[in-house]
Amino acid sequence: EAGVVQSPRYKIIEKKQPVAFWCNPISGHNTLYWYRQNLGQGPELLIRYENEEAVDDSQLPKDRFSAERLKGVDSTLKIQPAELGDSAVYLCASRREGLTDTQYFGPGTRLTVL
Amino acid sequence: AQSVTQLGSHVSVSEGALVLLRCNYSSSVPPYLFWYVQYPNQGLQLLLKYTTGATLVKGINGFEAEFKKSETSFHLTKPSAHMSDAAEYFCAVKGLDSNYQLIWGAGTKLIIKP
């Protein structure tokens, strides 16, 4: 079974530029999460999808961040415009509906904003 | 509100020595508890989890953790450290009423001395 795929793995941009991250979850996993992880900290949830519906986006900075999961499979997270403080690792995770709630993580995208 | 505290941002042990990483949680409902490991430049990988039943949980790579309700703890142990165990370890909790959102600790970086 293929794991969660994310691209790109690394991205360096200048502030005020746009950037997009892509995630393809494990096949059959209906729940998809986007997290931001700052250096030396645990993941911080940005948004959670159940199929194509964003059911928890309360921590997504909506002035500059947007996300979509149009067909309930892969997802894109966008930042426009990027700020210096957006430098972090952006993690995608997926979960199959069930009792144990295990989330499976992709390798992440390390964003550096100069 | 739920929270997770990991004692020690860095733990250093000698190769072959006991590994003990501490995690305390607060939850108003019976929790699900997780330990994840993150190797450099990689995503998070599930080590082990406690949902219900036996309080001593065995995971991958020789790690185990014990759920102690009276102490609200879920400490991670391994009898003999190996150089390949060097990584960052995250404890997370999910209460049954938390809409499947994990609350994460800040992480503990495990350093293995030769």
Whole-angstrom Rg of chain A: 13 Å
Class per helix and strand makeup of chain A:
mainly beta
Fraction of residues in H or I helices of chain B = under 10%
Summed up, the helix count of chain A is 0
Mass-distribution shape of chain B: globular
Taking all Cα atoms into account, the compactness measure Rg of chain B is: 14 Å
Can you tell me about this structure?
- The complex is a heterodimer of chains A (114) and B (114).
- With 114 residues, chain A is mainly beta.
- Chain A has no helices and 11 strands.
- Chain A is globular.
- Chain A starts with a strand and ends with a strand.
- The mean pLDDT of chain A is 92.
- Chain B is an all-beta fold.
- In chain B, a hairpin with a 5-residue loop joins strand 4 (31-38) and strand 5 (44-50).
- The interface between A and B is medium-sized, with 26 and 24 residues.
Short description:
Chain A has no helices and eleven strands. With 114 residues, chain A is mainly beta.
Blueprint (SSEs and pairs):
The complex is a heterodimer of chains A (114) and B (114).
Chain A: E1 5-7, E2 10-13, E3 19-24, E4 31-37, E5 44-50, E6 53-56, E7 65-68, E8 75-79, E9 88-95, E10 104-105, E11 109-113
Parallel strand pairs in A: 2-11
Antiparallel strand pairs in A: 1-3, 3-8, 4-5, 4-9, 5-6, 7-8, 9-10, 9-11
Chain B: E1 3-7, E2 10-14, E3 19-26, E4 31-38, E5 44-50, E6 56-58, E7 64-68, E8 73-78, E9 87-95, E10 103-104, E11 108-113
Parallel strand pairs in B: 2-11
Antiparallel strand pairs in B: 1-3, 3-8, 4-5, 4-9, 6-7, 7-8, 9-10, 9-11
Keywords:
heterodimer, A: 114 residues, mainly beta, 4-stranded antiparallel β-sheet, globular, B: 114 residues, 6-stranded mixed β-sheet, 5-stranded antiparallel β-sheet, 11 strands, 56% strand
